[in-house]
Amino acid sequence: MGSRAWALLLVLCGTIFLEGIDVAMLAVAIPSIRSDLDLPTDTAAWVMSAYVLGYAGFTLLGGRAADLLGRRRMFLTWLTVFLAFSGLGGFATEGWTLIVARFVTGVAAAFMTPAALSLITTSYEEGPQRNKALLVFAGTAAAGFSLGLVIGGLLTQLGWRWVFFAPVLLAGALLTAAVRLIPAQPRVREPRTEESPGRRRRRTEGFDILGATTAAAAMLIAAFAVVRLEHGLAGWRLTAGAVAVAAVLLAVFVVVERRTPTPLVRLGIFRTGSVVRADLGALLFVGAFFGFQFVLTLYLQELRGWSSLQTAIALVVLGCDAVLAPTLTPRLVTRYGYGKVILGGFVLAIVAYGLFLPVGMDWSYAAMFPTLIIAGTAFALAYGPLTIAATDGVAESEQGLASGLLHTFTQFGSAIGISAVTAVYGLASSGASAGSDPDATLSAFRAALVVPVVMVTLGALLSSFGLGRRVKPPTEAAAVTVTAGAPATAAATTVAAVTATATPATGPDGSPAPLPSTPHSSA
Fold first, then answer.
1. Cα–Cα distance between 76 and 235 in angstroms, integer?
2. Helices 128-158 and 365-391 sit at what angle, rounded to 10 degrees?
3. 172, 366, 419, 420: least CB-packed within 10 angstroms?
4. Contacts with 493 (C-beta within 8 Å, 6 or more apart), sequence order
5. Coil, strand, or helix at residue 192?
6. Per-residue pLDDT tens digits for 313-366
7. pTM of the model
């Protein structure tokens, strides 16, 4: 690649780095924010929840908007919004301001990241050049999260507002460079319409407003229902009601897409290549990864008494995929094909999480290290190739849509993984003094650790079928998209789960205290 191509790649990679470092730094800063603004527990939780809901709720729409409204336009517009509302969070003096700022920032990321991914797929020639660019993109996301944990701890010492202002400075630099480096997208000249044969249709005419509205509403409510699962049977009516409403809205969305002449989502994309299998595989893999990381974070801080900064530094080794993804993984994919590499990643994940099942009260970091390094390697092997499979056979004009679908699945996967381990912990600790008895707490953690093992086992079975066959696109060259922002978002929420609140040993009625509420949980 030439110097300009590398410069463009650095700008696009800088965007996903920005997204990863932003959420990671906020995760570490939550306790200081809560203390300084005197926020109640539920408000502090919603500061993180708002971002997750905004991201998950609008990712599908964001991906398709990049295809229909222009990738450059969407990228520049929403990077500007991201910058503005991150700055707003830095000036916040009340909880509701932070919640609004984080929700809009999440929405901005939902539009900005798919646009960046589809810019890569259309700016670099298919083959080794594009694969290299995309795997660098994926590794940058992991680096953003890993460094964000440490940098967030350092900036919080100076003042938590710097956690919001630092992304503003980075976003400003990226925006300035992007305006010059991202080429203008060619104007698409649609054929003349039957109603008006004398003029051509504009690209934005016939935009599926009803489909966009029902899709966003369904995703938002579905995301809310998923994060409610961590409460188990407590408030089950609200959870069940959210599931029912989301299902109805999804059904309405499907009907709308079948009938509109210009659908937001062409339903036939789900029959293209290995899109569905790969998206489901990504959901299971990401969910297991961050479910495990959540339990590990609780173990280190709740049982071992490690500080948030110590925990963040310990987890940095999980970011080894930042190095392996652009170096080792491309060689393996070239030699063995992405299907076998994906399966290898799932198998390594099974080994990694399985090794941690007998975790003890006094395990040294050396005893934990094999699990951490193997889990990071598994992520490097599985995640990038899964994104290749998720867009294999998809026409270039629908790369934004394919990216949005993958973002959506990974966002829901992370939420499901964290909520599932939380629910299992609650069931395992029921009737025992898990809050005050370290042995009971450890036993409950071990039970929760079974969830990631089950998820990656299911993913390994799924990846054994149909993920290795190359499918040629129907009309255009197949493009490869690597979606890295979703995991980073989910990962950051796991660290904040413990640092956001201090959990009492027992509940108000003397019963064992539940697992500390995850940052995306509702009140």
1. 42
2. 130
3. 366
4. 23, 27, 48, 52, 290, 414, 418, 518, 519, 520
5. strand
6. 888 888 788 788 878 888 898 888 888 999 999 999 999 999 999 999 889 999
7. 0.77
